[in-house]
């Protein structure tokens, strides 16, 4: 009997601990789940030759020596982080994520644990991270730091698929570490660099490369603990093995919404870094539609840019950012004051709901014909208007059996041509009371009124 009581108490204690952890996680993610838009910035040596980031070495399309030689032309001569942040603020982004160090091992800050940095190895000869952080804080945006767990230039790191230069150890001072194994030295190096980044008090860590080793090898649990110790409010993406806080699918919009908090990261063309020969830019309409699809299912869009080696942003990227920002500004109520929309079947297109569930935002990707159809809405409709133009639309119910809680179809008139947005038109359906949905299978009406 005593044993059973003891086991029950242990079980209750465990449940309580997990409940506290989940509550803490929910609190940490609160800002993230309301953010809607973030800007991803891939900036590194790979922009000099316009090649596929660090992966160009992995696939042996460039030698390690030639890859690192790109540092001679990585000048950051036109780098203006305040101008970057002015643009991001204009677009409507709420957070930014900068590649502080990609798989190549090149750090954008003045790290003590490697000379392979933009301060000591690149033509820039300066710390690029610190002024960026200051610019972000001026705008009161959330700061995200990308950090690759793998470092393909580090002499103690394996596996690598290419031949490193023979003198790569010169970049990594390791005094007093002779008694450690190669992997122990590398793990210590990761912890040391992360401790440097913790000094910037990031709101978000965006890890990458976790697939190359198991969580026990990276010491992922210990990494998460150290980050939370430095900043109890920090959140981490899903690429710290199983220790992430939110999911981050990339490039292909999820057909089925991921569970929990999530973001969708996407390039504007087919590459993350600056790649001038890649002219396959997504049209503005696709970027706006993707943004709408993502926020309508409760996610954020993390839209990527790849600045040039001099720090300027290509006109094609600026054009798309500004166009998205203009659309967001026009429809900001539906963007920022909303959450994931209606379940499938009520409306043929993306939708969002206001936080109080008294407004439904219907997103039209194409010009409608005849009428717009909304199904299963039991609450009375107060008004329907086109966001941006303010045009009021007429509406009427058809069919159904209100006395049997079957609402029928709501037919909404088509907006005038002048009210249609060139990318996505948004209708605001205001309800008299909080949203109540009909989710039944339908049944015979045994009593007509």
From TrEMBL:
<dbReference type="GO" id="GO:0006004">
    <property type="term" value="P:fucose metabolic process"/>
</dbReference>
<dbReference type="InterPro" id="IPR057739">
    <property type="entry name" value="Glyco_hydro_29_N"/>
</dbReference>
<dbReference type="GO" id="GO:0005764">
    <property type="term" value="C:lysosome"/>
</dbReference>
<feature type="site" description="May be important for catalysis">
    <location>
        <position position="265"/>
    </location>
</feature>
<dbReference type="InterPro" id="IPR000933">
    <property type="entry name" value="Glyco_hydro_29"/>
</dbReference>
<keyword id="KW-0378">Hydrolase</keyword>
<dbReference type="Pfam" id="PF01120">
    <property type="entry name" value="Alpha_L_fucos"/>
</dbReference>
<dbReference type="GO" id="GO:0004560">
    <property type="term" value="F:alpha-L-fucosidase activity"/>
</dbReference>
<dbReference type="InterPro" id="IPR017853">
    <property type="entry name" value="GH"/>
</dbReference>
<keyword id="KW-0326">Glycosidase</keyword>
<protein>
    <recommendedName>
        <fullName>alpha-L-fucosidase</fullName>
        <ecNumber>3.2.1.51</ecNumber>
    </recommendedName>
</protein>
<feature type="domain" description="Glycoside hydrolase family 29 N-terminal">
    <location>
        <begin position="23"/>
        <end position="331"/>
    </location>
</feature>
<dbReference type="InterPro" id="IPR016286">
    <property type="entry name" value="FUC_metazoa-typ"/>
</dbReference>
<dbReference type="GO" id="GO:0016139">
    <property type="term" value="P:glycoside catabolic process"/>
</dbReference>
<comment type="similarity">
    <text>Belongs to the glycosyl hydrolase 29 family.</text>
</comment>
<feature type="signal peptide">
    <location>
        <begin position="1"/>
        <end position="19"/>
    </location>
</feature>
<comment type="function">
    <text>Alpha-L-fucosidase is responsible for hydrolyzing the alpha-1,6-linked fucose joined to the reducing-end N-acetylglucosamine of the carbohydrate moieties of glycoproteins.</text>
</comment>
<keyword id="KW-0732">Signal</keyword>
